[in-house]
């Protein structure tokens, strides 16, 4: 019996997805590391194989038509299946395991990242970890420059991207250790009346989140000093120059300064948390995302939280709120 199934060239399918995601033949060629002519030829061959046009060529930037949108919805699963087949073949022939490109926000990369690399090293042939701001990481994921991203916000199209809540961390206020010496217990309102409030820059998500918290709690503090990175901010707190609102991962990232700072209580509030998510392209890297989630939670719970509580006795007892996962019991075993 003759097989009437119309085959799909996986290289052409990958090119098709890249064009849909980048909205440009030129940009798709850059992402795939081929020439624009090669991308055009692959798209033309794919359209001939399927017997239909896949793009509405009357519009710029280029976008898929009705048939193209149907193919795009199925493409992720086809490519993941092909990737899984390749992975199984390599395992069977003892030639190694896949490569993985992870992008993380800076504080996660600097605190959880090293432990995560160690815990995943025996599963990967090569592992690359990049750090950056959430908007940049999201764009790199969409452009297939990353396989997996760990961000503090998810703004990508949910039809293309799967989002897994990872954990949240509680914002923490810190002041110079000398500030509390010989004083009665105080709250953060008392601190910002005497010390300048050092802030993260407003171009970062943590800076925006802290600013919302400051306004919500009616901390009246002029905006005079902003920093992109935790290390100079915490260094100035430790030297007695000012105070700050930061997070457990940021504190662990710059833990060399912890002996010279003290924690000041903040009122409990629903917006006093920073949330982390794992992002993958839909139907891709699902099993690895689960492994990254499991190991990241274990590092936060078993390494970072005890270390911070030992270094700063005034820290809130619940630094991390771990979201429910099917593998929690397995990870705790």
UniProtKB/TrEMBL annotation:
Q: What is the protein's given name? A: LysR family transcriptional regulator
Which CDD domains does the record cross-reference, listed alphabetically? Answer: PBP2_LTTR_substrate
Q: Which InterPro entries match?
A: LysR_HTH_N, LysR_subst-bd, WH-like_DNA-bd_sf, WH_DNA-bd_sf
- Molecular function terms, GO-annotated: DNA-binding transcription factor activity; transcription cis-regulatory region binding
Per the record, the similarity remark reads: Belongs to the LysR transcriptional regulatory family.
Annotated PROSITE patterns: HTH_LYSR
Domain HTH lysR-type stretches: 8-65
What keywords are assigned to this protein? DNA-binding, Transcription, Transcription regulation
What Gene3D superfamilies does this protein map onto? Periplasmic binding protein-like II, Winged helix-like DNA-binding domain superfamily/Winged helix DNA-binding domain
């Amino acid at each position: 019996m003759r097989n009437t199934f119309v085959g799909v060239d996986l290289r052409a399918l990958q090119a098709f997805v890249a064009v849909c995601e980048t909205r440009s033949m030129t940009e798709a060629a850059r992402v795939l590391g081929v020439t624009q002519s090669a991308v055009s030829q692959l798209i033309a061959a794919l359209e001939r194989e399927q017997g239909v046009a896949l793009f509405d060529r009357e519009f710029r930037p280029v976008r898929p038509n009705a048939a193209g949108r149907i193919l795009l919805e199925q493409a992720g699963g086809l490519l993941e299946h092909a990737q899984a087949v390749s992975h199984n073949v390599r395992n069977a022939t003892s030639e190694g395991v896949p490569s993985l490109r992870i992008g993380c926000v800076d504080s996660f990369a600097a605190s959880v990242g090293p432990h995560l690399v160690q815990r995943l090293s025996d599963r990967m042939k090569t592992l690359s970890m990049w750090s950056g701001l959430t908007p940049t990481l999201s764009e790199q994921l969409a452009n297939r420059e990353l396989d997996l991203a760990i961000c503090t916000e998810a703004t990508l199209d949910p039809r293309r991207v799967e989002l897994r809540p990872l954990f949240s961390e509680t914002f923490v206020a810190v002041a110079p250790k000398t500030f509390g010496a010989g004083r009665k217990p105080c709250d953060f309102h008392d601190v910002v009346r005497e010390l300048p409030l050092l802030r993260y820059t407003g171009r970062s998500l943590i800076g925006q989140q802290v600013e919302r918290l400051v306004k919500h709690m009616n901390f009246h503090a002029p905006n005079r000093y902003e920093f992109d990175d935790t290390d100079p901010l915490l260094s100035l707190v430790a030297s007695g120059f000012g105070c700050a609102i930061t997070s457990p991962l940021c504190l662990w990232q710059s833990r060399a300064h912890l002996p010279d700072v003290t924690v000041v209580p903040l009122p409990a509030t629903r917006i006093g948390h920073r949330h982390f998510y794992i992002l993958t392209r839909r139907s891709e890297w699902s099993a690895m995302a689960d492994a990254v989630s499991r190991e990241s939670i274990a590092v936060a719970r078993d390494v970072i939280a005890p270390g911070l509580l030992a270094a700063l006795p005034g820290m809130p007892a619940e630094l991390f709120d771990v979201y429910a996962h099917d593998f929690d019991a397995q990870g705790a075993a």
